[in-house]
Amino acid sequence: MFEQTFNTLENVLRQEAGCTTELDYTEQTSWLLFLKYLDDLEGDRAIEAELRGQPYVHIIDAAHRWGRWAAPKGADGKIDHNKALTGPDLIDYVNRELFPYLEGFKARATSADTIEYKIGEIFGEIRNKFTSGYSLRDALDAIDELSFRSQDQKHELSELYEAKIRKMGNAGRNGGEYYTPRPLIRAMIRVINPRIGEKIYDGAAGSCGFLCEAYDFLRPQAKTTEERATLQSRTFYGKEKKSLAYVIGTMNMILHGIDAPNIVHTNTLSENILDIQEKDRFDVILANPPFGGKERPEIQQNFPIKTGETAYLFLQHFIKSLRAGGAAAVVIKNTFLSNTDNASVALRRELLESCNLHTVLDMPQGTFQGAGVKTVVLFFEKGEATRNIWYYRLDPGRSMGKTSALNDADMVDFIERQASFADGPNSWTIAADSIDPATCDLTLRNPNAPESEALRSPQEILDEIAALDAESAEILVRVRELL
User: Fold this and answer.
1) 57 pLDDT above the threshold of 80
2) What residues have CB less than 8 Å from 399, skipping those under 6 apart?
3) What does the alpha-carbon distance between residue 360 and residue 389 come to, in Å, rounded to a whole number?
4) Where are the domains of the chain?
5) What is the C-alpha to C-alpha distance for residues 146 and 155, in angstroms, rounded to an integer?
6) CB 118 within 8 A of CB 250
7) Residues with Cβ within 8 Å of residue 357, at least 6 apart in sequence
8) Which CA distances in Å does 321 have to 101, 257, 285, 298, 344?
9) Which DSSP symbol is given to 309?
10) Which residues are CB-contacts of 275 (< 8 A; sequence separation ≥ 6)?
11) Class of residue 277 by CB neighbours under 10 A (exposed 0-12, middle 13-18, buried 19+)
12) Looking at 44-48, 51-55, 247-251, 419-423, which range is the least confident one?
């Protein structure tokens, strides 16, 4: 049912002139899903209030509710198309009345951690890209068939939405910034093993895959009302710079079951890390910061180690944002381990001296579809210097790609061995005091890998070719004698 609705919606979007990419499809699906979700949420809250004998004040006023403009119903419970807006009237209403009204919530909200504020931020960042009111009417009719009432329904919808994010990520370089393979995220979370009551942070949140997966990991542990409330409002925190990613990430968390996500739309790197205080720190950091980007000189001034490489600035931010005893898992380009520029050396030294970098996971080429770089995952704990580093080189035994993506089974051996830092054919340990203090080079060199055979000399190769030629000539002579 839900999958069929999503397929219908995608077909409608593909025929809409204002939507041309997977990013557009996901963005437009997001605001439609958000308003339907909000309508269902308000319906549930109104019923709960009535059962308690209390009044309920709606967030959305009567004139702008879903049932008024998107899906007015007749006595039979079906959409009354005589009352439902369509064509140019629908586009005019959405652009001139609905979006300005919803954007106004940001100014009217009492604080930034309310759902009202999220409504205002979302509709201040995106625009309706439907140009045909008839296409929009078809999309609204499809969305209205969805229900967000039960946990099972929310789970199915969140999986379908994740699939859209994955398609968006595979569609191009920009979309790929928003998608980290979920099997890798789940493995990172398993190793970190967060607990209810800990504050979890992603300063480069993107589509909020890390926070959503962390919520799914912790939700079964929440046994009491207080623990469930802690997960809802005092556990997951994120920041995201780009408007589309912010909207998609917020929607992704909402569909996973967090009503008012603590996601802030801001450039994380604009904050001077020297201003980060204890109250600003987190117990767990999970992130895949964008790499290859370049930040302006005024942004670089916020960091002790000056560099234009975005990922290196984020790593400084994460180290500073982690509380003493806190744990982090961060994806970064594998060149970070060996680059000889001053910033790379200084950052590796800072990481080794202020944190216990206990694990380095080397990911195979093609893990991130559309990205031509190899990556590693750094696992570290704040507060003690590094003593030993355990390396693991992931080898799934196949080439990675669209038809052979990373899966959970690929990560099993890593997770099992990491628990005891067990050495093996693809894993080894080095002592921190064996690292060159001048370069702090962390290059992956597997001492357990079988040594390759020595290359033959050119003369040996030429001699073999001559011998094979002579043997071939002799065989030809014998064949001619038989003719």
Assistant:
1) yes
2) 366
3) 7
4) 2-149, 174-434, 455-483
5) 12
6) yes
7) 351, 378, 379, 380, 386, 389
8) 37, 26, 8, 20, 19
9) B
10) none
11) exposed
12) 247-251
Contact between 31 and 126 under an 8 Å Cβ cutoff? The reply is: yes
pLDDT tens digits along 212-237: 999 999 999 999 999 999 999 999 99
Tokens of 371: 């990205």
Burial of 323 (0-12, 13-18, 19+ CB in 10 A): middle
**Which amino acid, residue 195?**
R
Cβ atoms of residues 324 and 385 within 8 Å: no
Query: Would you say 442 and 428 are in contact if contact means Cβ atoms under 8 Å apart?
Result: no
H or E, element range at 360: strand 355-362
What are 391-413's pLDDT values in tens digits?
A: 999 999 888 877 788 999 999 99
Nearest-angstrom CA–CA distance, 73 and 62? 14
- Alpha-carbon span 224 to 221, nearest angstrom: 9
Nearest of 83, 43, 75 to residue 59 by alpha carbon: 43
Exposed/middle/buried for residue 398 (C-beta within 10 Å: 0-12, 13-18, 19+)? exposed
**Residue among 278, 254, 466, 310 nearest 383 (CA):** 278
3-state secondary structure of 305: coil
Q: 105 φ, ψ to 5°? A: -65, -30
* Ramachandran area for residue 334 (φ above 0: left; ψ -120 to 50: alpha; else beta): alpha
The secondary structure of 51-118 as a DSSP string is HTT-----SS-GGGSHHHHT--B-TTSSB-TTTS--HHHHHHHIIIIIHHHHHTHHHH-S-TTSHHHH
- Given pLDDT bands bounded at 50, 70 and 90, which one contains residue 175? very low
2-149 folds as Ferritin (1.20.1260)
What phi and psi, each to the nearest 5 degrees, are found at residue 198?
Answer: -85, 145
DSSP state of 334: G
Residue with tokens 């219908």: 8
Residue 446 tokens read as 């597997």
pTM for this entry: 0.83
List the one residue out of 207, 260, 226 whose CA is nearest residue 37. Answer: 260
Q: Tell me the fold of 174-434.
A: Rossmann fold (3.40.50)
State the alpha helices, DSSP H only, in 113-150: 115-125, 133-144
Q: Say if strands 262-265 and 236-240 run parallel, antiparallel, or are unpaired.
A: parallel
Both tokens assigned to 110: 């009492």
> What are the backbone dihedrals phi and psi of residue 142, each rounded to the nearest 5 degrees, phi first?
-70, -45
User: Residue 454: its pLDDT value, please?
Assistant: 43
Token pair belonging to 79: 């959409």
